[in-house]
User: Fold this.
Amino acid sequence: MSESEVLAAIEAVLTDKMAHGHMDGFGLDARLNEDLYLDSVLILEIFLNLELEYGLSVPEEAIAKQEIETVADLVALYVPKPTAAIVPAFALTGGTTDEGVHGEAYYDIKVHCFVSCVSDGLKRNGLDQRSFYFGVWDAKFAVSDRFELLYHAPDITQEFFRGWFERLYGVSVVEWYDPQRTKLDNLAVLFGLLKQRSETGSIMVMLDMFHLPERENKFNQNPFPHYLMLQETADPETWFVHDPDYRWEGEIAKEKVIHAIMQPTVGGGYVFDNAEARAPFAEDLKAYFEACFVRDRNPLVDAVRSIVAAHLDGTNGVALTDLGAAVRELPVITIRKYAYEHGFAFYWRALKLPAAEFEAWCGDIEALVQSLKTLHYAVMKLSQTGDRALVGAVIERLDEADRLETKLKVKLAEVFDLWCDRAIPQDIPSLKRVAR
Assistant:
């Protein structure tokens, strides 16, 4: 097909098959996320419908590409053009770009909003935040009684990360939001905290990002619970919003932020002072790694496997056609796997291991993320077609993701044990590893 034919097919899929409501700016130059409000799941739906309706398919590696930003990029997957250099998923920050893992430059991974917020002040104080990301790659998620994968649920709290942040860095993280109070009462507490905020103080609040339409929403979730930080400005009608997880800050009308905070879908907030931060003790880092390292299984792959099985078997009345919606939040959890890079980087620097070997393991981390993306596509295809002959392909991708993540964990456990031998006095007993 020609470029114009592929463009027309994409437009038809969005309009007719997906009933997408943001088509005013559609065209080759339109940005998929910012202009058309298409998140990674909706882009997968475009791929799937183009394959099923028009016989247009692309290689799996194209499905997982990082640099698809515009409609033109999408069209180019089907009408190949000379390729440009691939841009890393995460911007390199600090130092120079040729220092590698042993220099000051590193990919500034932001994959968990609470962790990103509390870690934001560490770099400002010259501290390495990477070790705190040990708990992120297997951070808690939920599976509902309808076998839906959920990155946020009522029983998921931040207590694990809050408690360990205090222990590791000596920073008191106080929860100011009280679910027993009314929304208005909690809002009044927030107003008071903002007025009393010190120069080094941080005030976190949970809001529903879906209700901040002017802010880029990478996952187009509704609702989209998300932590960020607020400050007052000279203008009483405006608040300064600092969102470390999405690397954005700027002024937004106070009433719009309040509207997002007051949604019944969200509730939460913390206050802390970055000036209290100190470097963690090696014994505490050892205990933290052991508390969050799930050595012998991969919870996300296990959960998706059980969700697929439940929908195939009709458990609790769920149907195969429900499976696509059940895994819609998989991309939100998948990006947490990039936290492995911080884990490897921390130990590589501490042990002065070869930089080239580190880069190879980063390739395996990227392979894991891409395998989870292609798994998601395979699951969506199974759900939409209802063709049980596709189950084998889904199982193969589950097994591949399981293999890749197990390989990463085996190596990470190896370098962790080596680091313990060098950094921890021998008279301190090893703590029992806890499966989360």
The chain has three domains: 3-78, 128-152+282-423, 172-276. The longest strand covers residues 201-208. Residues 117 and 306 are 32 Å apart (CA to CA). DSSP finds 15 helices and ten strands in the chain.
